[in-house]
Write a structure and sequence with these properties.
This protein has about 725 residues and is an alpha/beta fold. Helix content is about 45%, strand content about 15%.
């Protein structure tokens, strides 16, 4: 009997042997990047040997589902590779928890050992008589990656190689006329494009541009340094976006590296940075992967769009720009769709922009992921920010013993060169006192910690020339207001803005004066970056006022405020690098070691969880970069009217949902329940609804539920 792996829609047949060999070649090629070619070949050649059964052949003709993964896993275990075995058993269903191979473990346990036991007890049909090949033995992972956290990371990367190879071999057979993947420029060509782009900056005509050129030139020079962990600590306005790209391209060319990956906290910054990269390198070489940029094969109308849709699946593109949420949640996922791209992180330059935004509650697993990629998978990491967090000790805890190198070493002198503001401590200000101070400024930005404060203080300002920004306004509304703010600033008109923290990072505005409610020092310095941004005034004329308010701090930012108070004690200058270092050390002291891994990810992989070793699936369920206890309310205004009707129809496409996101407001669960109970919203599903009481949406301040503290960012 000839056993088939796939039958195409037009009747073509691929044998199991052909599919195994094709997958094994690809998987071995991918895994060779981190010296695991043998393990890759073993996983690939064994993953579908369970298809050598009459039951699976009936499945190809419409029969019932068949477990075809356990057979290959058992064979991998017999030749001594539990890593390949666990990858094979989960190549469709996801990496399972390893479990614990005890005699009293039930055979219906869905862990790896539970499924193996079920197979040994006859839970699947015999297959060995149908498997005439002999599985090769494979070298184990390096000793430093055979236990605990490192073993989990190594296994997940091998899993990525297998699932991508399996998908690709299947795709090539089933869809031979599908547009080809790849076809992008090589790193050498992209470096040439960058060098051509920056030629015009080589003879700077003012002091600021001269300093920017010095930073850029130093980053290019440092690109030839060895692989490792680097920091790029550049003040706001220092040109770190292009400088970091220059380092990455020169480094990739020097070390024959595959990809450059930018990891960024905010979608607004992603869109800005991606636009810069596309201008320099060409649109076909830059992939954006975030909630505001979705590609769907069904909606693609050109071969270029098809390539982008395919590249989203496995990040096979020279430059990828993505969110921190997408990056780290993929790294800790057990799902094949999310893990598929991970092997393309190996031998890549990974830039973590705004590195201070790595969430304190997940700092250890984030640093652990970066350390693993550098230590075992040939990547280089760059932590890029104006306020560099102190992470050297954490990297050492994860086995990275090398020094972390700063690309622009004289940071204190650099900060003095780019100093554009002076700081003032105003102490505690009531809303009324604050409003009076703001009225005395024709152009001023005030950033507060809560949406309630933003609305209350905004209502105390003159209507003419005043603007409000918060996440209670849908994104398209906020963009219109930002455009109006920029216009008023450009034309010298009155412009008083009350905003929550959403304006701090990645929003290009330039005010002569900024007020910032007490927050983390990194937030204060981000706010300062909106003051005298273009350096057109002296620092003495450009004041950043720090004040305390009557509102209680939300617990999520209470630690940050406490650390900032310690760092700024005795009148310390907020802008000095040593103050920033003191702040991050104080923050770590306040939250403690457990506070930097609140999901217990590192402990779970090092020591197991409830007697279960390597809890891949369990960690996936509990690791979330953002504690998203929010639901979405879509606002039917402007284009949102049509989009809301499409959402109500129940036949909305991914593109409709993407566009509708521009008209969505995230509210907390309690607020959502109040809106629902009062009949103010019409639910679409368990987590979203359409606003029906339009009196609750104000053209100046947005949605009016009970206002809560604004402490996070929504991606």
């Amino acid at each position: 009997m000839e056993f088939m792996a796939h039958i195409s829609d037009d009747g073509r047949k691929q044998t199991v042997q052909e599919h195994l060999e094709g997958t094994a070649r690809l998987c071995s090629e991918f895994a060779a990047v981190f010296d695991a070619a043998e393990q890759g070949y073993l996983a690939g050649i064994s993953h579908d040997i369970g298809k050598y059964t009459e039951a699976f052949q009936r499945r190809l003709c419409g029969g019932p589902k068949v477990d075809h993964a356990t057979a290959g896993a058992m064979e991998c275990a017999r030749v001594g590779s539990w890593q390949a075995a666990v990858c094979v058993i989960g190549h469709h269903s996801g990496l399972p928890d390893l479990g614990n191979f005890r005699t009293d473990q039930p055979s219906d346990d869905n862990t790896f050992y539970g499924r193996i036991k079920k197979g040994q007890n006859g839970g699947i049909e015999p297959y060995r008589d149908n498997w005439h090949g002999r599985l090769p033995k494979a070298e184990p992972p390096p000793p430093s990656a055979q236990n605990g956290f490192s073993a989990a990371a190594w296994t997940r990367m091998l899993y990525s190689c297998l699932v991508d190879a399996d998908y690709l071999d299947t795709e090539r057979f089933m869809h031979p006329h599908k547009p080809h993947r790849g076809g992008h420029e090589g790193m050498e060509r992209l470096l040439e494009e960058l060098e051509k782009h920056i030629e015009k900056w080589a003879a700077p005509k003012n002091e600021i541009n001269r300093h920017r050129w010095e930073i850029l030139s130093e980053c290019l020079r440092c690109g030839e340094k060895p692989k490792g962990v680097y920091t790029l600590t550049v003040p706001t306005g220092g040109g770190k976006t292009v400088s970091s790209l220059a380092f990455a391209l020169r480094h990739a060319v020097s070390h024959s590296m595959k990809h450059i990956i930018y990891v960024i906290p905010y979608t607004s910054i992603i869109e800005q940075n991606a636009a810069v990269f596309k201008e320099i390198l060409g649109e076909d070489n830059v992939l954006e992967h975030h909630s505001g940029k979705l590609y769907d094969m069904e909606d693609a109308v050109s071969s270029a769009q098809c390539r982008f849709a395919m590249a989203i699946e496995n990040w096979d593109m020279p430059v990828i720009v993505t969110t921190a949420v997408q990056f780290f949640e993929s790294f800790y996922s057990n799902k094949s769709s999310k893990c598929r791209k991970l092997h393309n992180l190996a031998n890549s330059v990974i830039i973590f922009d705004e590195a201070q935004m790595l969430p304190t509650g997940h700092l250890r697993p984030c640093v652990g992921a970066i350390a693993e990629l550098v230590r075992h998978f040939g990547s280089t990491a760059v932590l890029c920010t104006a306020t560099q967090p102190v992470l050297g000790d954490l990297f050492r805890q994860f086995g990275y013993a090398e020094n972390i190198t700063e690309l622009c070493p004289d940071t204190r002198a650099l900060y003095e060169k780019f100093r554009r503001v002076s700081f003032r401590d105003a102490g505690e200000l009531s809303n009324e006192m604050l409003a009076e101070e703001l009225k005395n400024n024709r152009q001023v930005l005030c950033i507060v910690n809560s949406r309630r404060a933003a609305q209350e203080i905004y209502n105390m300002l003159p209507e003419k020339g005043s603007c409000h920004l918060s996440t209670l306004m849908y994104p398209a509304h906020r963009q219109r207001v930002l455009n109006e703010i920029r216009r008023r600033l450009r034309e010298g008109k009155d412009c008083r803005v009350l905003s929550t923290s959403l304006i701090e990072a990645g929003v290009d505005v330039d005010f002569p004066a900024v007020y910032r409610e007490m927050a983390g020092l990194d937030s204060i310095l981000q706010a300062a970056g909106r003051c005298n941004r273009e350096g057109k005034r002296s620092s003495a004329e450009s004041t950043v006022t720090i004040f305390k308010s009557k509102y209680r701090s939300h617990p999520l930012i209470g630690s940050n405020i406490g650390a900032a108070n310690e760092a700024l004690a005795d009148g310390a200058d907020p802008a000095l690098p040593e103050t920033v270092v003191k702040y991050f050390l104080s923050l770590r002291d306040i939250v403690g070691e457990e506070g930097t891994d609140k999901a217990g990810v590192v402990k779970s992989f090092n020591k197991g969880e409830s007697g279960c070793m390597m809890p891949f699936e369990s960690v996936t369920h509990k690791f979330h970069m953002i504690d998203d206890n929010t639901k979405t309310v879509y606002i039917p205004l402007d284009e949102g009217i049509t989009l809301a009707e499409k959402l109500r129809s129940g036949f909305a496409t991914r593109e409709v949902y993407r566009k509708a996101g521009r008209y969505g407001v995230n509210v907390y669960d309690t607020q959502y329940r109040r809106l629902l109970d009062a009949g103010n919203i019409e639910p679409l599903d368990e987590s979203s609804a359409v606003l029906v009481n339009m009196k609750l949406y104000n053209e100046n301040t947005g949605l009016s539920p009970d206002c809560e503290q604004e402490t996070g960012f929504f991606v």
